[in-house]
Amino acid sequence: MSLYRKESAPLNGNKSTLVAQNKALGSVMFMLGMRDFLRDPLDLTSMLHISNLTLEDETPAAPNYLLQSFLRRLWLYHPQARNPLCISLPEQSWPGTCPPNVDEGIGEELRSAVNPLDLVTGAYMSSNNFLRQEITYHMVQCSFAVPLLLPAVWPDIKGTLLLWPFRGVMGLHKSTTSNPQDFQMKNMACSRMAMISCVRLGTLHISKSRVLNRVLSGPHKNCAFFVHRDMDGGQLPRSISEGMVEVGWNLPLGHPNGDTFSRPLLLANLRGDAVAFDRPMSLLSRGSGVLVVFFERLNEKDLQTLTYWRSLACHMVLVDCSHGFKDAGEREIHGRLLRKAIKELELGQEMIVSGCRGDEEGLAVHLIEALDHIIPHLHAVNLVDLAGIGTDLSYNLDEDDCCRRAYEESEEVLKGMEDDPVQFKKEQLSLQDGQWRRLATIEKEQCRKKDGDHFNQERLREERENILQETKKHTVTPSMKAFIDALTTINTVKRAYFLSWMKARLDAVQWDQVSMSTNPLVDQQVLVEIPSDDAFLGLEHFLREMGLMYELCYHSATSDSYVIRLPNLGAELLMYGVPLEIYDGDASCVPINWITRVMVELQKKLPLNMRTKVITALGLHHAKNAEVLTTLFGSSFLKGSYRHAKGAYMLLVILPEVLRWEMECELLLLINTEGLSHPGLPSEVAENMAHDHELTTFVTGLSDVLLLNLKAENEADMRDTRQVAVSALLRTKEMEKMPICQIMSQHDGANTKALALHMSRVIQVLSMEKTGEDLESEDQACMGRSSPCLLGPWNNSVLYLPLSPECTKVALELKNMLFATIQRCAMKNQVTRLPQFMESIYQLWEAVKHGTFPIPFDNTTVADTFSDVCKKLLSGEENLDSHMQGWFGRVDDRISDLRKLRRNSEDILRTLEDETSKEIKAESDKIQATLEEHFRRNDIDFQFVDNYKPYFLSSMDMYCGQKTTEVNKTLQSATDGYDLSAKIKALQTAIEAALEVKLRALLADSRVNDTCVLDSKLKSEFASVWDQIPTNLGQKPVEVQDIVAKVKQQLRSNLRIRVLQKYIDKLEYIGNPSLPAFEVRNDHFGFRSKVKRTLQNDIQEAPKFATRIIEECNHNVQEKVKKKETYKDSYATEILEIVDKGLHMKDFNANSQFEIDLKVFICNKAALAFMELQNKLIGQMNSKEKFLHDNKEKYMLDFIYQFRKRDQCQKAAFTFTNLCLKPAVQAYIQNSLGVAIMEDILNKDDGQRFNSPSDFHYNILKDLIIEDSFESFYEYLQSGKTYSRKKIHDILIGYFSETVMVDNGRNQRKNEIFDKITKAVDKAAEETSRGQGYMQELLTAICHNLTASGGVIIPQEALEGPLFDINTHRDIFITNLRDSLAELNQNMNEDLQQTQDQVDISLDLLYKLQDDLFERVKGCGEECPFCKAACDIGEKDHTLHSCLWHRPKGLLSYLCSNSSSLSHSTCSQEVGGDNLFLNKDTRDQSVPYKDYRTIYPSWYIPVTEGNSPFWMYVLMRFNERFAQTYQCDPADIPLQWEGIQQTDALASLWQAFYSLEN
């Protein structure tokens, strides 16, 4: 059928448009596989099937699986339950053409079938009201927004307002009363709070839903309440959810930083453009306290719409989401319309949220601020009020007449309850008032009679008769009559409504009775306990009363047609998911006749011969067993109440076909225990404890699988759990009815973890046999030690907390464990059906009633003692583990030591195994000694020691055996790995050596030719080496065989020969590593054993035979494995022959089932051993080829990398050597040569002139006068320093122009510098870290070492280049650097040998010698400020300068005053006269010569009358030349000068410097 929706069309659209669009919507429903469910909706029983279809969190294969996936994930509290991703989509996912406004980014959503909102809406449309209620409950727990208004679907054009789903949702929030500490738990349908509706006007570029998520999440949470466009499928167009209204809640708890708003709020979100949905807007406007309108652009028509909405709404908030206007004009128009809207709508400025420019976070913050102003003034409504408004608007309400009639019936049943619940319970449920409890007590006392207690038995019999006589007078109370009449209706829908109303009304009364004065954010125990059971009334009490009516009617031997029909009603309720109470916990009694009759009726309604398995959830009163079972199996145990009636409740789960064969079971019976260790009055503690033990013993004995649900929040919880659980397991162990246990926890605290570990040890110990023959019960040990921690949202009293994805993962892990356990039960135990289950109920109740268990129900001493011994055992095992862990840490060293002794692998392994056995035996003896000492304590009963000591010792032996096997396997792997690693290392060494040879050749070629080697060339060179590496395996590759298939074939042939083909399906277990150990079961013995009455003997002999055959086959397999040969078919044949031979000679009776189970177990173990051997052989024999194949690419890349890196290193080393070190070496040699030359010059005869500045000055003047050259004199007079340096240069040139022979110490100096460099390199290599490092840091260290130790300065500017700024392996670089140094040393030797006859002097050395000689003779360097004569004082450190001779000033172009001729006077003559001088030092002012000290205080010029003959001769000799040069007149030479000759000048020069020469 097609689906139609009114709101999807424009308001004035015609009918043809509606039909066309809704046909498309019908196609979407068809694609999702939901169309059939519109006629026949899914119900709660459907969830039992859907939840168990698969045990994995699988992505849906196609869109038609999305509904099942959504529901299954929702029940598992999966955060991605709404995700619409699927593996494949139909060729045309969307009917017709996608709407044109779909984003271009939709291409990345190709795997999303629909919008998540369409999936949620479709799920609600496809479910009946009761499943909707459960969906709503789980969606709220998952922090998902919940639909309130479903869009109209053709032919219904009204739409549906949902109210019923919210009656199953409870919310805790701070009370709005005057007391700020009060909290209340209320039904979300009836809870009154302010309502805020959020709608969209037009299109938005932001996501309204993301903004609302931030508003509801608050500052410290991040919950995805509403689906938005960034989610998977969120960008896809909405088809059936357009116009839907979702709701979420803000429930404050008084947290100063965690609450968004201080008052509880209901927030509604309309999907789609609000303009297109007139009636939903009318509903939201009238029902809401405030209407929040999101918009981006406004026009006049929008203003009219807003005005209309404002007329309906009490308050309005406008959220301006505008941004990015095209121009200022558009912005101005928008602003004008917004101001007009504010004025016409009469809104205050605080009611406008704007200015965020599309920032969603900012919008959320401003919206919260705006709502904070108005929330205190909003009126409170509830969803019931909103439903009334919806009815006025012609909406369909999901609570129809049938629901209302059921409500009236529930009110009739509960009439008068609210006035006085205790009195109501006493009058209307009178059978539970005390007579039933007393009758149950009497019956147990009669059954537990003691010898010599005849009088008491008679008294009890009379009291029992009196009670039965009283019960005969019992008439059905009005409430129970109304209750039973309501249940016996043929209208199952009305009956379901009735039960739901009953639960909702009773829960409301429960919560109203509870004090809520404790802050749930501070205290885990939110609520104060109800003081008495009399004040507690739940739906289970009415169902219990119905059973008691039948039970007492049976005991009274009365026949009441009204009561006789009740078992059929009970069975029918059980079929519809209403739990059946099989144990009355308050009376501690089983209404055996009621249960028996209900089970008979149930069997009539179920298919014949359904195989059953029983799973029981056992936990304390706060363990939330009902929520756990609902999560795992989709069951509908009563949940959500504050507490439940104490007892055991049962539900049915019919497994899907896909699981029945594997589980060997069609029907699961789930049993839930409630009320264990519930706190009561002090006087009732002892009685309650005994009742708890009776209840746990009963349900434990009934179970195939016991789910221990641990939640220990304190020491009391740990004590109570240990006592009841351990006692129950001990009792059922004695009855041989102990189930397989699976531990889970709901708390991650230290107490719960310790309790889980402790209980796992208890289970393991009790799983043992006294003889210690059950050492292979690894499944029990594994199940006991694996305890998933399921932290479900039901543990939170607070709605809308972020959901952890771990919850789903752990739930699926736990479910897989439970089903795997069921599978093991099916393989080990006899097939159980409902009659056998009923028989077990009867037997267990008789055992409980008569107290035939060895441990009394009021005795906890045995359980405490057992637990204490388990603690000792655990402590010893921990010490053993710690010891073996430390021992095994030294195994590698031990293997190495044994290898040095040339021991082979088998000898090494045997030695290590012997050492392992000794170590474990020593630790085992310590544990046993500790246990023996504990058993000798005075407070331990001897009978306890006698009964349970073998179990502990067997458990210890099993643990030690497992530890030995575990360590031996590890040792085997270690030795095998050592062998393999040795072979691989040898191969690696050969490969690395061959590649190293090739690498060095390529590096040498690259260095010599200085060429760039391409990668292709390197790959070619690598291939030439790789292809020549010999493998030298000496053995052929191992042939890979399907050993499991071959063993199966051998066993299949064996079964055909023995005509056992009907067991062929058992062969599928071969190859399963988790197959449990073989155990002899009752179904292994058939009719023949019973006829011959040899059953007891057969039961004793069969396990011995099986053990012997298994050991013989194991030995055969181990011998084959030791040969290390490939598998042959004869191996399996030999094993089967051993079994057949043993079966032929056996001396007991067993059926074919025994034979096939034994052969399957032996063949499976053999197949796994041969598979392990094959894998080992493949790993060993083909290791080299595999290594070469797997590592060729790696080696090639490493070869290229090493070449590039080492080539770079050798180039960098070569560059550093030539660029930095070679100049330093040459400089060192040259500097040493310079010292030698200096010494030779000074030692020569002519070298005396350099003895002092005076000697040098004397020789300069002497050479000048002898040379008799004007040009030389002129040059000297212009700059004595320059002339002196030139003279020194000429002397050096003259020195080198001769045949200069220098002592050949250059080789020694070369060796010295190379020794210093080598030491610097070695020191840097030692100081820097090994491995990778920066080259620049290493080179800097080398330079620093040379400078610090050898005084050799290396220019480091070149190190700043990119060539040295690399990260390389330092050892490689050091090696290359040393090679480069060796090469440099060799080159230097050759150069020195070639130049040994003549030394080439560099210009640098020449200039340095010139500088050094000038530094010796320059004196202080000061000159006379007038005549430029040099200071002749020999010492450099003096403050007063003086000259021997001052020169005639004419030599420096000075003229006579008032004349153009050169002056012949000297400085000494001028300072004695009245002449003036003027220069830059006087600042162009004339100063008398006699006052020269005022300008030149550091000079002393003595006053003399005459000139020196030397300078007289010079001026006279070159007077004309000086005049020409200075362009003036010659000096007027005095007549007495004319007689001075050159000899006179020389004589005067000698006379002046005579004292200096001596």
UniProtKB/TrEMBL annotation:
Residues 609-842 form the VLIG-type G domain. Pfam families: URGCP, URGCP_9th, URGCP_GTPase. This is VLIG-type G domain-containing protein. The lineage of its organism: Eukaryota, Metazoa, Chordata, Craniata, Vertebrata.
